[in-house]
User: Fold these one by one.
Assistant:
Number 1:
Amino acid sequence: MLQARLRACADLIRPGAHVCDVGTDHALLPVFLYRQGIVGDVIAADIAQGPLAAAEATIARYGLSGRIHTILSDGLQAVPPEGLTDIVIAGMGGETIIHILETCPWSLAGKSLILQPMTKAPDLREWLYAHGFAIEREVCAREGKFLYAVMRAVYTGEKLLPGAVLRHFGRLDLTDADCLAYAERQYLRVCKARDGSGDAAIIAEAQALSAVLEVYHEDRGDL
């Protein structure tokens, strides 16, 4: 049984895709994708030999040795791009995901990026838009009291500086209860930063986020 955030990643992968799971750890996602018939091919990559050995043990336990390929790689450094359509980078901080994308030795154009940051999601969204990527779809995954954004991004070449709402709330559907709860938590973080700094830009961000949340609470009859 996949964790909710990994299942959300799986749901954003296109049928028949050729996938690389970066930082695969125990290869739970690649095994799930292969057993469900979602992918045409899948690579499990990790930076360290220990996690990669754990991934290979999981793959062998499900009788998939030789079908799921494993690669020792620092991010995407040693991953061959040929035939690759979808790249999953999940369970890492937003800054780490940015570093992996920045140091990729080949073009990410034409690849679908499924990203699940544990922290710094606004910074990741801002980097994506500033570097010519667009977020096609974004969902929220709940694991106990924790809420995570999971996004699919593609390269369009159009660079822009996202506003406060797009940066903090992304493309989440705020009519969904978990997505709205995620947005509220992001808003509270901005409020905390506002109260600690008094910075005019952060005050403006908080006002923009508050205005959006008020609309959705009105629609729900919370006000």
Note: The chain has eight helices and seven strands.
Number 2:
Amino acid sequence: MAMEFPDHPFWDFSLGVYGQAGVPQACLELQSDHQLDVNILLYCLWLGASGRGTLDAAEMMRVTGSVAEWHEEIVRGLRAVRQRLKGGMPPAPEELSEPLRAGVQKLEIDFEHLEQLMLAAAIERAPDDNADGESRIRAALANAGRYFEALNVRQSSEDRRNLAILLKAAFEGLDSELVAKICGGLTAA
């Protein structure tokens, strides 16, 4: 039986961003390098992109705390099982374990979808429809920076490059020149 999730603009945003060239690899590198939760990073970008503004330190703690146990025990647990099954796990026949791995991957996505709904409920704000493109981009960037600070991660040039890929994807249709200018400063830093 397929799980039915309520519609939410954050999930739609995440699918749109993640489906763009370079984004999955950028997310994987950030996740691997810093053990960060890509869902939280996407949430930070969505808040800014949707005109919901910036998070202060206390709000960031509330956001990260709202899904910490879920992400660690459920999402990462399923990810570990899925990764362990990749390429088979002898003596289990690969032709039998591969369909199970695919099922675990589907579950992992469903559990991440639920995590995103939990994140969206952590800080509920109405969008500011008057927020201009530049303020939205800067809010998304500030939120991502706040998340790195919460993780006590000093961004490397590679991290900034990956973040620029995510920002360009998040703001693809907004104002490409402005996004390129701000992201250019991010990668040049």
Note: The radius of gyration is 17 Å.
Number 3:
Amino acid sequence: MVEYRIDRRSGVATYLQIVQQTKQALRLGLLEPGDRLPTAREVVEATAINPNTVLKAYRELEREGLVEARRGLGTFVRRTLGSAPADSPLRGELADWAARARAAGLERDDVTALLASVLDQLYEGDDT
């Protein structure tokens, strides 16, 4: 089951953080079709956010066809995204690179900016 982490200083709306983290879990294979998302109550207890915020995120995921609400049962994953499993050798290589970047004194935002610039260049003109 996914555990949401809310960064109140990120500038990203709380419901979008839930949507993004769910999509990331789907891409990494941490959530698969049939898995149940935590209930709104469970998310509220873990993160101290408004239940309506959780429901808004779940409605957005449902609108995108990623999850479905089953009355009285919860919200379940309908489909997955991508093909980057969490146990991929590439993840290990990326973790090693990130550790070297941190050891070199780069802050998290520096690493994020550097990675984004490389990805932007690599996928320039690509609609995926």
Note: The radius of gyration is 17 Å.
Number 4:
Amino acid sequence: MAVLAIHHLPDPVLRRKAKRVPAIDGSIQRLIDDMVETMQQSNGVGLAAPQVGVSLRVVVLQMPEGEPIALINPEVVKRSGEREVAEACLSVPGYAGEIKRSVSIVVKGYDRQGKAIRIRATEIMAQALEHELDHLNGALYVDHIESQDKLHEIEPESESEVR
């Protein structure tokens, strides 16, 4: 496993719509392992492949006290509710913002073994899923900020928001 370089705005890879993974092979398994290690080393909750320069529809997530989850070719199938949340992003260091996210979300995709899975999530997991799936579509949380006064600089050691 290896810690990969995280790409930052304005890197164009962050603005491209990621391609579907055609087959889950050894290269995808290595990518998932490297992404998990990178996410953990960066103290992130999630990481999308475009953030490490790979334009494929792969995300990894890890909730506090939980095991890492990999999702391949994920799609949102249902959203409900709306709430305002604080977010930050490993690809936009030094900033956090207040945006609107769903209260609950249902996502379908494939796990690292290629098994179809469906995740129903609320709260921070729903927020993290929406955040990472945005990356797969070339969007970042800053695109959802309604006004400049909802974006603020943060100290590196105080980055406690979802990222």
Note: The mean pLDDT is 94.
